[in-house]
Structures are given as structure tokens and as C-alpha cells.
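does this look right to u?? fe (ii) ion version
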Amino acid sequence: MFSRFFRRGNSEQEKSDALVPSDADWSFLGADIHSHFVPGIDDGAKTIEDSLTLLRAMEAMGYKKIVTTPHVMSDFYPNNSQKILAGLQTIQDAARENNINLEISAAAEYYIDETFTELMEREPLLTITKKQVLVEFSMLYEPPMLNSALFNMQTAGYKPIIAHPERYMFFHNKFERYRELRDRGCLLQLNLLSISGYYGRNIMEVALRLLEKGMYDYCGSDMHHEKHAAALKGMLHSKAYNTLAKYPFLNSQLCL
Ligand SMILES: [Fe+2]
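got this back:
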């Protein structure tokens, strides 16, 4: 049903391509709230040169503001606020020295597992804006502590933003779980690349369904490397771009 978004080489696609202005960019979003640009602390940018390449790509695609979000995951990326903020300083300085005109701040993408609540009690969480905190969890199975961890966050005054809900395969046949998360006061963040089919057809279809139902609050690039940057640029010439441009994402409010 949704494959019409990316069908190539037919008159429908050609017509929709014609509707995308040649100077299309992501400036209508203003801010990106999910990326991995701090070098050497997660699976994103490895060096400061990588960071600069990705930041230049974001600037060229029309973004004005970046809230970069390194992974905080006890097993693989045991980052903390101090380490992330030191890394932020490094990329802010490098961006300035290289005339990259982006407002750059940092938060984190916190991984919900059995260690998360303890971490939250140990130090204040880094926020995207106000008290909003980006979280993710296993893509293989629903963590048994998910609801209690979200509840604990809310009790502590935070508002969870669930990163890429469309990528949690175990929710695909339980669409009501998405509604439940929203009813519990969570915000949902679309990975833009999900709409392009980058992560596969099933994820694209779930993402389009969530979009159609108006269930996303934010979108994000979740950019780790140049391949993501190229794919995001490629989306500027798809019919999906028009759909995304019309959607009332909250991203632009971060630029007010
Ligand atoms: Fe991410």
C-alpha cells in the first residue's frame, strides 16, 4: 500500500518528483534532535574529521540547529554527561574554526535496560529541550522493565522521547503498544531514513502508518556516518519529502 512512495520509473513518481522543488532541503525542520557526531565515544563519528564532514552535510541540507545524542549504554558505550559535554566542546570549537554555521548542543540517547534507573538516580539526564529525554531500547525484544523505567523517568519529572519506535519489530504486530506509549505521555521520534526504506520494507511501512495516524512528535536523522548523510540527501527528491514537509513535527520549535 505504501510502496507508492518509492516506486521509481513510472509516471506517478515522475509527477511527484516534479512537485519537489529543486532547492528542497530540510530547513523546514530547523533542528535535528538525534545524531552521533561526538567523535570516538559511540558507533558514530570516529574522528573529528568525520564529525566535521557530517556537520557540513547537515548545514548543506538546511539544518540550523543540532542536538547531537551519543549513546549511553552501560555494556557498549558507558558514556556520562561529563564525557559527552567535553566532546561537545570539541566539536563546537572545530565547527567554529571551520566556519560551519550551526548551533550545536548535546544530549544523549539513553538505552533502557536494568541499569538505566540507577543511572538516572546518579546524575541528571541530558535533555533535548525542557525535560525531554531521548531513549531507546533493545530492538530484539521488549525489555521487561520498559514500563517501569518510563514511569520512573516521569516521576523524576522527565518526558521520554522514544527513538525510532518503528524499528522495534516486536511492536509491529501490536500497534496498540504505540498508542499506549503515547497515552502514557511519551513522545515518538521518527527516523527520517525509515521512510526511505533504508532499514527495510517492514520498518518503512510501520513508519508510514504511524505518520499517517499522526503519532509522531519529532523526527531525527540518527546520522552516524556518510552513508546516512547521502541517504538523507537522496530523500530530498522523493514523494515522501512532500509528506514529511506537511507533517507538524515539533523540531522547528527548538529554533524559536
Ligand atoms: Fe541513535
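The pocket of fe (ii) ion is lined by residues 34, 36, 109, 163, 222 (CB under 6 Å). idk if thats expected tbh
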